[in-house]
Amino acid sequence: MGSPELANLYQQVILDHSKRKKGFGLAEGGVAESHQLNPTCGDEITLRLHLADDDTIERISWEGAGCSISMASASLLSELVPGLTRDEARERIALFREMMRSKGAGVEDDEPLGDAAALEGVSRYVARVKCAMLGWVAFEDTLSLSS
Amino acid sequence: MTIHDLSETPTTGAPRTDTLGDEEALRLRGDFPALHQSVNGHPLVYLDSGATSQKPFVVLDAERRYLETTNAAVHRGAHALAAAATELFEEARARVAAFVGVREDEIVWTSNATEGINLVAYAFSNASAGRGGSAAERFRLGEGDEIVVTEAEHHSNLVPWQELAFRTGATLRFVPVDDEGVITAEAASEVIGERTRVLAFTHVSNVTGAVSPVDEIVRMAHAVGALVVLDACQSAPHLPLDLAALDVDFAVFSGHKMLAPTGIGVLYGRSGLLNAMPPFLTGGSMITTVTMERSEYLPAPQRFEAGTQRVSQAIALADAVRYLQAVGMDRIAAHERALGERLLAGLADIPGVRVLGPLDAARRTGLAAIDVDGVHAHDVGQYLDDRGVAARVGHHCAQPLHRRLGVTASTRASTYLYNTTADVDAFLEGVAGVRSFFGEA
């Protein structure tokens, strides 16, 4: 049993994604790859960016090991990004980062984040924000590397 | 140098027994203001003293009193405050020296154990670069020489030796741990040899709590003429420690893990060795004569204490030591051993939990790091924190040992004199609930 705060942090959608990870397994090809490490706990993620012919995002593929927050966050990101343009992707990253830095206050409109909005509870726990950001930082890095 | 009478130290008036027991531990807890608070709606259960300990009023008061009444630069100035500050600073050194069974001129103040290890490593490095004259001969390293560490080391007792090897051309070798993650004399004997010049290892592992066979390893190292550096960070706060009896050449520990403030640590070195070593940090207060071209250096310990020192912290460390002595290190060790036994026995009953290190409580101190099947240490720590239980999660600055034990991170509970069986039980109850919360059981 945990407190309501803990239940809010570990929502069912997060626990589900941490166990059944979307986009998991590095796919062949891709235009850029990024490896990100959280040195305090050893969490790591390697992420590849796959683009469609029109330069929109086809998908991301990734692998890694870490806590449920880092794994779920990368999984939720994988669901969110297919079909986005680069600019839309950067906007989503900026919005997610704003939410993570909100110390529990959230953002005005989390709609563009889809199910990843469920990670809002992480922002109350400063020590866990890095975990949630890991996959998104890797994704951001691949966007820079490939532009 | 006067050492204050131990009876001055405020502590429990109960008759002394061989161990503290819960009742006395709870009374001692009254001396630690940080332990009287709620976290996430629960009374704080602090089980992270292996990382840093909480501080009793006598230590907090000592630092404040010094700053309010005596604050001045030490070893310089002729005014009354400077003289009083210097006396307190050197009294503190004498008390800490006596605490670990060595002479006061063999105690060098550092910021922490990490700085102490770097000081020794840089003395080797500077000697290898030609500094220190003929006296520093035994600190010169080059190709063919070997620096030996173990696979169980904290990064602070590994990385400085890696860097020293890179700078000097010496080879860094390591003593592998056994399948339980323990340093054995047998494994050490296979690595220590004629080429070994320096051997650095931990007295007590910060991950497994296993106590190293110091006597045997020191004998082997000395038989081949190697110098021994002991990491006493997890022993000095928790066990009676006699560095002279252990016959090590150098030892380090940190004040903040033994009830003192941050920013103060201790390097012990044999007097003959310290005085033969070229300095590490150089500047004011460590010299005799300075010209525009060159300088002569003071004997140890001042030769290693350049710049304005951490005076209030050193004085507070002496008060921490006085507090520990009044309680009795043997009794603290016995209390933590009992807590460690309960911890191990309780963890053995929880399905899906693996304790890192030997499962025999007699071979370890009062801490335990665990791997919970299917749940990452960060999540375990979060779940425990939700219940007010403060444990350490991560690799505890010992990545190679975690890798050897087949995990990337673990969750560690570490006890101290202010912990009780109820604290251990709170940890065990938390751990017992983790896997079902995360859908693993």
TrEMBL record, chain A:
Domain spans labelled NIF system FeS cluster assembly NifU N-terminal: 10-131
UniProt xrefs under InterPro entries: NIF_FeS_clus_asmbl_NifU_N
Superkingdom: Bacteria
GO molecular function per UniProt: iron ion binding; iron-sulfur cluster binding
One biological process term in Gene Ontology: iron-sulfur cluster assembly
Pfam families in UniProt: NifU_N
Identification of the protein by name: SUF system NifU family Fe-S cluster assembly protein
Organism the protein comes from: Labedella phragmitis
